[in-house]
Amino acid sequence: MKKIILSIIALAAVAVSCSDFIEKDERGKQTLENYFQTAQECENYTNELTRRLLVTNDWWVLVAPRVTNEMATDDAWMGNTGQDNSAHRPSSQYIISPDNMGDMNSSYTAHFYTIQSANIGLERMAEAPISESQKNQYMGESLFVRAYCYYELVNLFGGVPLYTTSLGTGDLKLERSSAEEVYAQIEADLKESAAKLETIPVNRSGRINKWAAYALLARVSLFQEKWAEAKLYSNKVITEGPFALEADFLNIWNVNNHNGVESILEAQSSDVQNKSLGSALPTLAGARGEDKKNFPSNDAADVLDGWGWCMPTSDLENAYLSENDVIRRRSTITKWGEAAYGDEVLNPTHKFSLNDNKSGRICRKYYIPIATRRALDNKDGHLPLNIPLIRLAEMYLTRAEANYHTGGDALADINIIRARVKLDPKTGLSGPTLLNQIYKERRLELAFEGLRLYDIRREKDPTTGKPVIESLMGPNGTFVQYNLNSADPYETTNLREPQDKGINFNPAKNLLWPIPQMEIDLSGGVIKQNPGY
Fold this sequence. Notes:
The structure is a single chain. With about 525 residues, the protein is mainly α. The protein is about 40% helix and about 5% strand. The protein is built from 21 helices and six strands. It has helices spanning about 10-15, 20, 40-50, 60-70, 90, 105-125, 130-155, 180-195, 210-225, 225-240, 280-285, 315-320, 325-330, 370-375, 390-405, 410-420, 430-445, 450-460, 470, 480-485, 515-520; strands spanning about 75, 265, 310, 335, 360-365, 385-390. It has a two-stranded antiparallel sheet. A two-stranded antiparallel ribbon has the order 2-6. A two-stranded antiparallel sheet has the order 4-5. Helix 7 (about 130-155) packs parallel to helix 9 (about 210-225) and helix 15 packs antiparallel against helix 17 (about 430-445).
């Protein structure tokens, strides 16, 4: 099969012949015709697909759009006020257009690139001369990857072209499927994935397993307001899966606790010094303008020198303060001059350039401890921070929300989450007050884990019935008005990022991002644009 795919949504026909993982000297030049002949080749291919869920060492492909989506919420500023912000500004400031999408363009491209690769792999592995058990494992993992890519696409862009076979040059003009059709395919892929992975042992290697499939089923069921299914799958993961809440919340993002007991799926990283396998997120969102003189050691080895994007808002900090939520606040936010939580001895007053930082805060979840920094000869591209994609606490919060809508005990689940961070249980809550508390617990628990934008778009304000984001953003949004009237000493001093963040939000269009104009042009106009753009 020799297919040259011109559309963005089909670029992977080129990718799967790349020399980085399917060309080996001992077998000569390999193509799709002679690959997938061994279990190792199928595993290598599947490993590459899984890596692309976040592409941890290629920051501009998916890591940058991930933080840009955070910047479009009430949790994060762009943050860096000293460099070009054109990749992040369109979404963060809600001035995005089909011709000015910033890095949302690469998010659209990358996921379809991976979907095409997954389709090719599934077709080829079905015919590969390997055992049925091996086929089930690698095909089950590949089905999950395809489902995850479509899950992100449908939440960012709405209905998109849907295809489950490899495309050729005659398939360039695919129409958009509806969001409902895309979700139906996601569910079908995840159910098939879980079935194929049913007997595959679950270990802590970071490989996709059946529990990841069930957990993502719980998430997409919640997002579709399929409350019974959301409860079914989240409960299944909680009661039958081999997971437990970390006793120490800070340990979830610990560089020395990869694939811990709470982790259902993480994007993997490594500090192997002769390869760039580390996470780019701690660099992209690390404190900008660190100086050795601000560390007790006065040693340049302690300096990471991040790029300063995606900085926490004081509004998010206030949400923690309103609950007296010390543990999750300090595990999520470090304010300028305060000790880095868990690293108080080596970094007792974390300071960085306030001239280049909008909020005077950094995300503690993305922080690399000083001891780890000292152990690395090479930092950039070698930072060993795994990125949680799904973890057990989310399942409790999913079950809580589903229970709220089905008459179950929602309080019990949020109190389990609160107990872990030493907060008193909530009692006597019901109706809109209870639902708003569930929403708040999701924000406090899962901040900077890739869910806030999706949540505020799909959560309904129990008073108005409208998406929560509509009450936060826009000229009269509570978040916008808070910032316009804020007296925060950091945010209101550095005005090189405007204080009216979110004022341009328009509910008639900004519940989704636009489809890239290039895709519409390539389709000859068959692909239609989202409303309002």
